[in-house]
Amino acid sequence: MVNMDTKEIVEETRYVALTHDTLDAKPIMDRVRSPKAGAIVLFAGTTRDNFAGKSVKELQYTSYEPRALQSMLAICNAVQEKHSLTAIAMIHRLGVVPVGEESILIAVSSPHRQAAWRAGEEALEECKEKVEVWKKEEFGGEEGGVWRANRDGAVGVRIDNDQNLNSPAPGPHGPVLRPGRLGERGHGAVVNPRNQNQNS
Amino acid sequence: MTTKPSTSDGSFTILYFASASSYTSKDAEVLAAPLPVAKLFDLLEEKYTGIKSKVLESCLLTVNLEYVDVPSDASSTGLVIKAGDEVAIIPPVSSG
């Protein structure tokens, strides 16, 4: 019953896990399924074959596993409380992930769909900002692998402070080096739900 | 981390991830304790020339899984890493 390739924390209405196995949407949806919920929103992040036009051969994820699980659980707690979710589940794949396969699944359930939509998006953005998982993109050829950074859009790039006068307030993981750009993260343009509320 | 160096008396384990692991060519190693957190980055710079500006300045630090402040002044008093502690260099994350 114990899968050595998966590390997880299971609470009554919260589930977080890191696994070297392929991800399967159905069991994660079932983790949050409830007669109290009228909606389940599932996000599946899949690995792209390019970064900024450069062809990516494969991706590899590594993690500080006990720290990452705690961060995932803290995000689940906060998002669940904020949006009164029935349940929330989050699983991230580690090791080599072939292009086109899922690297992360997030499922949330709530009595009504609006809260589930918002919570799902917010949980992903929080996860990409905070969870101690690192992605290495192998470009093949002489270039080798590059450790990606969600925050900077590129690794090893330092931004001078004077370019940064309008930078957002420091987050819990220290100062943000510069404001985010659309599209710099792995799953398309970043949409911060906290800035979208006036449009809804 | 599958192979973690064992810490006996007088040493702590430091874990390197992502760019920190690439720069040191290590996943982990054992360093002498006690060591003030304020002196850690200078010690690593001595061992791995250039690591401070190329890697560490954009990293965070955990001690026993909790994030701690890294004082910018090496002579400042602050947290002291003890024998048996697990310290980790946390580069900017890229989950998702």
From TrEMBL, chain A:
Keywords: Cytoplasm, Molybdenum cofactor biosynthesis, Transferase. It is found in: Cytoplasm. Pfam families: MoaE. It comes from the Eukaryota. Substrate binds at residues 112-113, 128, 135-137. One of its GO terms (cellular component) is molybdopterin synthase complex. Its main location: cytoplasm. GO terms for molecular function: molybdopterin synthase activity. Residues 159-200 are annotated as: Disordered. Pathway: Cofactor biosynthesis; molybdopterin biosynthesis. It catalyses: 2 [molybdopterin-synthase sulfur-carrier protein]-C-terminal-Gly-aminoethanethioate + cyclic pyranopterin phosphate + H2O = molybdopterin + 2 [molybdopterin-synthase sulfur-carrier protein]-C-terminal Gly-Gly + 2 H(+). Belongs to the MoaE family. MOCS2B subfamily. PANTHER family: MOLYBDOPTERIN SYNTHASE RELATED (PTHR23404). HAMAP family: MOC2B. This is Molybdopterin synthase catalytic subunit. It comes from Glarea lozoyensis (strain ATCC 20868 / MF5171). The gene is cnxH.
Automatic annotation (TrEMBL), chain B:
The modification 1-thioglycine is found at residue 96. InterPro entries: Beta-grasp_dom_sf, MOCS2A, MOCS2A_euk, Mopterin_synth/thiamin_S_b, ThiS/MoaD-like. Keywords: Cytoplasm, Molybdenum cofactor biosynthesis, Nucleotide-binding, Phosphoprotein. Its main location: cytoplasm. The modification Glycyl adenylate is found at residue 96. Belongs to the MoaD family. MOCS2A subfamily. Heterotetramer; composed of 2 small (MOCS2A) and 2 large (MOCS2B) subunits. Acts as a sulfur carrier required for molybdopterin biosynthesis. Component of the molybdopterin synthase complex that catalyzes the conversion of precursor Z into molybdopterin by mediating the incorporation of 2 sulfur atoms into precursor Z to generate a dithiolene group. In the complex, serves as sulfur donor by being thiocarboxylated (-COSH) at its C-terminus by UBA4. After interaction with MOCS2B, the sulfur is then transferred to precursor Z to form molybdopterin. PANTHER family: MOLYBDOPTERIN SYNTHASE SULFUR CARRIER SUBUNIT. This is Molybdopterin synthase sulfur carrier subunit. It comes from Glarea lozoyensis (strain ATCC 20868 / MF5171). The lineage of its organism: Eukaryota, Fungi, Dikarya, Ascomycota, Pezizomycotina. The gene is cnxG.
